[in-house]
Amino acid sequence: MTTPPHLTPATGGATTAPGSPSPGAGDGAAGAPPAGIRIANAPCSWGALEFEGMAADPVPYDRMLDELAATGYDGTDLGDWGYMPTGAADLRAELDRRGLDLVSAFVPVALRDPAAHAPGLDHALRVARLLALVGGEQATPTCLVLADDNGTDPVRTRHAGRVTAEMGLDAGDRETFARGAEEIARAVYAQTGVRTLFHHHCAGFVETPAEIDRFLDLTDPDLVGLVFDTGHYAFGSGDPASADIGAALDRYAGRIRLVHAKDCDPIVARHSTAAGWDYFASVRHGVFCELGRGVIDFALVGRHLGQHGYGGWLVVEQDVLPGLGTPRESAARNRATLSRLGF
Hints:
The chain is α/β, with parallel strands linked by helices. The protein has twelve helices and eight strands.
């Protein structure tokens, strides 16, 4: 089996001053990001989340695509299986009608459980075959985003954003988790040519910086790349206001193949800790806010993407639920924020 080419470096480092919401979020004077970056959005920004019951009435996919394209984005994530058409010709027609590319698809698997690996692979292959047919010939080929089955472990869900070391996997479970990810990535690439990237995520077993480090140490960089998510990294660090996003971008530069632009509201995060909210309550209260309203310095992100020659997608994700605003208006403001920074 031919393995994918080595993953190219993607990002670099510096830090946001603790407690300072997004310095530079309103101007691009600090330096422009590379011109090759394209901006996408995702169904989660229209309330179509992967968690059952999180959005009682998500926006229909055709309206979501209309609004996504109208607010200035070039691509979209697939969303939950079945949210958009799962026939390749139908999906490609919907995207072409709006001038959009398909960036990726999210596949959750309970990787710590060996019994979940085979059904997880079956689903990953089903998704990857669609990705290959719809997005395999794009200038930036589509990818499969693998993640833990987030939000299913009671302890991790209850303590998302404030996880301690004793809540983590033991060495044996970490090995099982990593081998499962590699097995899925290897089979997906061999059978479809689609690359697999892993998404660290709050309320899963790869949430904290230390857990991300260990997962990457245990997996082959030629098989498993990384989706770096700015908001999940900040919230998962335990203290979003002091999360060192720049240092993380430096550390993971050789593994990053996709970047999710997500902001994190430090006030909501502090309330989450004080009140003992679980992950879902934190999301409902808006911990992942509009870009420029939280702690993430997207000007810094753009500079360091440029330093490392990143030329892939930047996917905006803002988990919009009832009461958190109008998805189209938030999407437009998020795109305007990035435009002011040169994206």
